[in-house]
Amino acid sequence: MQATSTPTTTPVSAGTARQRLLSLDAFRGITVAAMILVNNPGDWGHIYPPLEHAPWNGWTPTDLIFPFFLFIVGVSITFALGNSGQGAKGIESMRGAQWKIVKRGLILFGLGAFLNLFPRFDFSSFRIPGVLQRIALVYTICSLIYLRTNTRQQIQLAAILLIGYWLLMTLVPVPGVGYANLEPETNLGAWFDRSLLGNHLWKSSKVWDPEGLLSTMPAIGTGLLGMLTGTWLRRQDKPVTERLAGLFTAGVLLTIGGLCFDGIFPINKSLWTSSFVLLAGGLAMIGLATCYYLIDVLGYRTWAKPFVAYGVNAITVFFLSGLIPRILNMIHVTTPDGKELGAKEWMYQTFFVPYFAEPINASLAGALTFVLIWLGILWVMYRKGIIIKV
Questions:
Q1: How far is Cα 364 from Cα 6, in angstroms, rounded to an integer?
Q2: Does the reported pTM lie above 0.85?
Q3: Do residues 146 and 85 make contact, with C-beta atoms less than 8 angstroms apart?
Q4: Is CB count within 10 Å lower at the N or C end of the chain?
């Protein structure tokens, strides 16, 4: 990671490369803050239903958070790489850009692997897939695609990935099972992950992984939808009103398409089904378009500043918000009744549980407090212009 102190949150034209779009930072910040909220309840046994993932088929607001982030990764690629795609800068510059992309992807993957290993560092059975690992793969592959393809080819590739994944999952017989299916332990993706990764899968299931290898294929499609959105927003030959109208329209159509596709390929976050990609991508387009209209077009920026503080250091806060609770729980505290608790659990039991009649409200209060603590830290960094780049 590299820390910089150059303020980069000034609103800019949607066509300016290598500068930040304030609405994009705000939308990223909203997404990351929501991710931290749902990942850190006070008590995993008491959570409001909208803050939980759907058990299997179907979706909740929580299921949209990760695809929103991957969508934003795709949008950000177009601003980061600007006009360097399609071989515009020559072979040597292209090789340099590709190396930087691969290097960043490896760092992101390494950070995710570190979180999965910490604190035991048991390499024999640690989980290889994960959220940061999927971000790394989607970022790397989508960035390389952006450098080598044009918009039409990206649309074609997205269609191939989503249709191809649908056909694979619904038509190819699963070895050892004998037929295609979409059940948790016996679908093609679960078999593929077990075959390649063995026991290095999600500890809650052991035999399948929600960030598995095969389902990364449609997740790349999510990134491509973000790339196409970023390319559209950067077009200077279109007035802002036309760009907004186009983005809203595309978002509505994709959302409807995902809901219709659900009838033959169920919306499922764990499988990252093609219908889920369309639904989440459409809603992400509508969300980004709304932020763009309010912040960059109408100029209503004050409300967005806390989210921008989250957005400009998104990977940093996600990584540390996963690491610090584990460190705290390595510190043991003995309660007056003789119980030994991790420091994080002790703080929750001491400062939240006694003050709420309902455990579910205490759990939510603990999660919100965690989000606000991080907001305070990130706000100081934002005011000082400190951005930690991976």
A1: 35
A2: yes
A3: yes
A4: N
Q: What is the mean pLDDT of residues 143-166?
A: 97
5 and 385 in contact (C-beta within 8 Å)? Answer: yes
pLDDT at 7 over 50: no
DSSP count for the chain of H helices, then E strands: 13, 4
Q: In this structure, which amino acid lies at residue 128?
A: I
| Inter-residue long-range contacts of 373-378, CB under 8 Å, 24+ positions, other chains counted | 374/36, 374/310, 374/317, 374/321, 375/33, 375/306, 375/309, 375/310, 377/317, 378/309, 378/310, 378/313, 378/317
Three-state SS for 356?
Answer: coil
How far, in Å, CA of 32 to CA of 125, rounded? 29
Residues 6+ apart with CB under 8 A from 332: 340, 341, 342, 343
Boundaries of domain holding 357: 2-389
| Count of CB atoms situated within 10 Å of the CB of 155 | 14
Q: 247-303: per-residue pLDDT in tens? A: 999 999 999 999 999 999 999 999 999 999 999 999 999 999 999 999 999 999 999
DSSP state of 120: T
Residue 335: pLDDT band (50, 70, 90) is confident
Count of the separate structural domains present in the chain: 1
CA dist 42 and 352 (Å) reads: 8
Closest to 141 in 3D by CA, of 86, 95, 98, 190: 98
Nearest to 140 by CA among 229, 196, 216, 232: 216
Whole-angstrom distance, CA of residue 241 vs CA of residue 216 = 34
